[in-house]
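Reopening: Sulfatase N-terminal domain-containing protein still failing for me.
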Amino acid sequence: MDDQDFLGSDWDHCIVLDACRYDTFSDVYDEYLDGTLEKRRSTGSSTPEWAYRTFTGDHDIAYFSGNPFINSLGIPLNELKWGASCDYEWTATNHISDVFDVWKTGWDDDLGTVPPESLEAAYRANQDAVERADRTVFHYMQPHAPYLSRGKGKKLKQIQKGIRRQDEAETAAARGKRSSIGASIRQSVESALDSSELAQKIGLWLELDPTDLLRNGTREAALELYEENLRIALDAIADLSSELDGRVVVTADHGEAFGEQGVWEHHIETHIAPLMEVPWLELD
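Support: Ran it again with your exact input. Result attached.
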């Protein structure tokens, strides 16, 4: 299996599916898209790790981001209050020429996430930036929870609102004076939660229907909604890709775990196959 080699590969437009594991993608993609599929190894098991290890230089990219961790706000990942327990002193604005905060402008409060059509709308509204840039990235939130058919997303809503409020409330001076002791405590607590299988499952239960949980169990209930989320995204991508000129690739930042080796969802530096193996589909 080759490394993802995201920036070293030949493409004009890259569509990134958030938290998309290879096996689920390979089962359904050809109902929506035609192309050559490979399994590749990502650089990280979560978006912060993937971004930090992938974008290391200066890149002329128009990046349409449904994921709030990749934003134009200039707040380093290791200073974000919501779910980024890491030491990565990385900001998208230091490495990517144009970042469009679709996670903010295209947010749907009822769904608790960024629906696929918001990425398409942002792309059509910023054609000048696309034409200026060498390459374009579309970072969809799906198949990452929340699951669109439920319309009650909770965890991502907390991250989105937390980052937004942090940017509004903190001055640059205040950011520089953040207590390193407080940050260390926060990271220790979140790391402990990440290592607890029960805590991970509780986080996933927020996104599931209690009836489905009782009937099918956590893994089967989640996988069914996860695949549905992926199909919704692929249907939208099929429409968008028909408008794109040049070489188009569909891939993922990382995968998603459903109980393998006691891991649920995805966590920083958890390098197991369901999180590291991602699709790499070169469209015909």
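The longest helix spans residues 210-241. If you still see a failure, please send the error message rather than a screenshot.
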